[in-house]
Amino acid sequence: MTAEERLPRFPEGFLWGTATAAYQIEGAVTADGRGPSIWDAFCAEPGRVKNGDTGAVACDHYHRWPEDVALMAGLGVNAYRFSVAWPRIQPAGRGRANPKGLDFYERLVDALTERGIAPALTLYHWDLPQALQDGGGWMNRDTAHRFADYAALVADRLGDRVAVWITLNEPFVHMTEGYGLGTHAPGQALLLDALPAAHHLLLGHGLAVPVLRERVSGQVAITNNYSPVRAAGGSAGDRAAADALDALQNRLFTDPLLLGAYPDLSAFGIGPGLPFVRDGDLRVISAPPDRLGVNYYSPTMVAAPGAGSRAGGGPSVLSEVGERLESAALPFEDVPIEGCPVTAFGWPVVPDGLRELLLYLRDRYGDALPPILITENGCSQRDEAGRPDRERIEFLDGHLRAVHRAMEAGVDVRGYFVWSLLDNFEWAEGYDQRFGLVHVDFATRERTPKASYHWFREQLRAQRDRS
């Protein structure tokens, strides 16, 4: 590798990692006392997941985790973000812990630390126990309290060995796709009536924070999916459209955390004084986190309703809501971002959007913004073992350089996690989208590192050599 091909030097102590999620890789959905999750139920419904795929076996990480830890060690990362499957710990979502479930994660954590890889544990990556969903799921306030109980059980076992504790992964996507559109588990199509789920997810985070602080030595964080929103033009209508989507996607799950208040949602016909918010809730939610997890894949461009074109629009997960609302339309319309490559998902590849996003967070939240971890960044490509994998390498290179530029501009970023270590079960897309640095043959579960794995390994080696 020549000096020109190397990434800029990142600070000593920077976390370099990969990321996964329990339901996407573990399989073994009935092993050792695990209870059913909303994703088990969702996958069992015909037509919900492409090709009828399920996570029942996935990458079989539950049995092949030593091989996966060895892949990480060979890669040279110093951190690994994974999630705990709530149904493995509490099969019915409440009560005493299932010891075999905790044993599995303890073995994983100990193996990581023995290899010098810091565990970054996500407590909730969308796999709610089905028993709690039967009682209303995140639309039920009680689920927030059950989440705090679950957090205590995991922290009691692993609190002294995990470096980063992430309460929730992408609550915006979970609320929108799972409760608003019904395109993810639990498959409810409540549209904007899903907002109570947003509040209860945030309340669950807030209730878990003091529970974790009493039990863990690591940092406490939360992760959201962010997309910088761009106005398609300079008109007042386009600017208002961009502000409306920004409020719903980016600020709804960050303003309460860092500013102690919900953003203005009047563009959606939602007034102040949300009826599901009780006295003291925002004080609980806004306990300052040690880190803010940022997941970034692409920006979004919108125009005023009727001014844009839905054909080939951006990646907004809300883009289909306007078509399904009978009495009102959304106050924005997706517009395609032209002139850039796209991933296999059709998402525009805009590395500088990550720098743009990080500066936005710094400018909006100021001193209230904690240090940032890029907890997911990656791209799907239709690749097979032995393919050059050039698109993924270029994606990672461009986005890491964008992170470095943001850091030079004063944004405090402490780590970067590639999504994902392995090709895996990609939710409603089944096994059709491949994000991994490591190719997985889903017939045999054989792992084969891709060219991007080897590229990232050499970049990490160069970072160590220059420290």
How would you explain this protein's 3D organization?
This is GH1 family beta-glucosidase. By secondary structure, this protein is an alpha/beta fold. The chain has one domain: TIM Barrel. Helix content is 37%, strand content 14%. It has 16 helices and 13 strands. Strands 1-2-3-4-5-7-10-11 form an 8-stranded parallel beta barrel, surrounded by 4 helices. The protein has a 3-stranded mixed sheet with strand order 6-8-9, covered by helices on one side. Strand 12 and strand 13 form a beta hairpin. Helix 8 packs antiparallel against helix 9. The longest helix is centred in the middle third of the chain and has 19 residues.
Quick structural summary:
Belongs to the glycosyl hydrolase 1 family. The chain has helices at residues 22-25, 38-43, 61-75, 86-89, 99-114, 130-134, 142-158, 171-181, 195-213, 236-251, 255-258, 281-285, 321-324, 352-365, 390-408, 451-465; strands at residues 15-19, 79-83, 118-124, 164-169, 219-226, 229-231, 291-296, 300-303, 333-335, 372-376, 413-419, 438-440, 447-449.
Write the layout of secondary structure elements.
Elements: E1 15-19, H1 22-25, H2 38-43, H3 61-75, E2 79-83, H4 86-89, H5 99-114, E3 118-124, H6 130-134, H7 142-158, E4 164-169, H8 171-181, H9 195-213, E5 219-226, E6 229-231, H10 236-251, H11 255-258, H12 281-285, E7 291-296, E8 300-303, H13 321-324, E9 333-335, H14 352-365, E10 372-376, H15 390-408, E11 413-419, E12 438-440, E13 447-449, H16 451-465
Parallel strand pairs: 1-2, 1-11, 2-3, 3-4, 4-5, 5-7, 6-8, 7-10, 10-11
Antiparallel strand pairs: 8-9, 12-13
